[in-house]
Amino acid sequence: MAMIRDIWRFRQFIASSVRSELVARFVRSRLGGCWMIIHPLAQVLMYALILSAVLSAKLPGMEESRFAYSIYLLAGILGWTLFTEVVDRCSRVFVENAEMMKKLVFPRICLPAIVIGSALVNSLFLFAAGLAVFIVLGHIPGRELIWLPLVVLLNLALATGLGLVLGIFNVFVRDVGQLVGLALQYGFWFTPIVYMPAILPETLRGLLRLNPLYWVVGGYQDILVFHHPPQWAGLAAVAALAGALLGLALFLFRRASPEMVDVL
């Protein structure tokens, strides 16, 4: 509760930091914030051009759509991009802001809050662009869209818990930061984003279900692509894992916070 109160007391500092970060990221750029959506959409286009002819016919209920695979891929990228941005940046947030932590007096929990705020803004812009693409392709999400904020919140909780645990360990063991990018690369292919689980043997599908992102990204795809609610049983297990990671992260943060500045 003390951390929550600190975040509320410093809410203006967090909001101004998010705004300054977004402005600084695109300063002197002619396209500005458009770059937040250009990179993910370019990734979608690349995979769609290479793989759509092979995989589009495998989407159940969308065999007639020429753009079925592109729609499926974009829905998965929406979920994956938010997760990876939060995990990657939280894993480096204390190391990258070492000088600020030494020179300014503020609750350290504000740093991951700034990361989360920035990631949510990026995700909102990407979702708006993705929704526009869906409409252009003739695919309009249904009323199941009301469940998407809950899936996004669960995605954010999972990413924040994991990212903070990694970020705290990264302060003391810098190898952790090097391993995060590698692990995310493997995680991308271990998550059904560019392929459908149905094309895999049942034994491999069983392994995929052990990946919490299987259910989170699948939730995005269920809502945005297939027009039905996400699989709540799988998401309930993910929620339990996210809660455990957040609890562990806050416990480690309270124990390690006094020593962080000295180590950095």
Distance between the termini: 27 Å
**What count of structural domains?**
1
Cα-based radius of gyration, to the nearest Å: 19 Å
How would you state the average pLDDT, rounded?
84
Order of helices and strands: HHHHHHHHHHH
Helix content range of the residues, please?
Answer: over 70%
What's the story with the biggest beta sheet? Answer: none
Overall geometric form: globular
Beta-strand content estimate: under 5%
The number of helical runs is: 11
The number of distinct β-strands equals 0
Summarize the structure.
Helix content is 75%, strand content 0%. It is built from eleven helices and no strands.
Give me some keywords for this one.
264 residues; mainly alpha; 75% helix; 0% strand
Structure description:
The protein has 264 residues and is mostly helical. The chain has one domain (2-263). Helix content is 75%, strand content 0%. It contains eleven helices and no strands. The longest helix is centred in the C-terminal third of the chain and has 32 residues, at 232-263. The model has no long low-confidence stretch (mean pLDDT 84).
Secondary structure layout plus pairing:
Elements (H helix, E strand, L loop, with lengths): L1 H8 L1 H15 L9 H21 L12 H29 L1 H6 L6 H27 L11 H25 L2 H15 L12 H7 L3 H13 L7 H32 L1
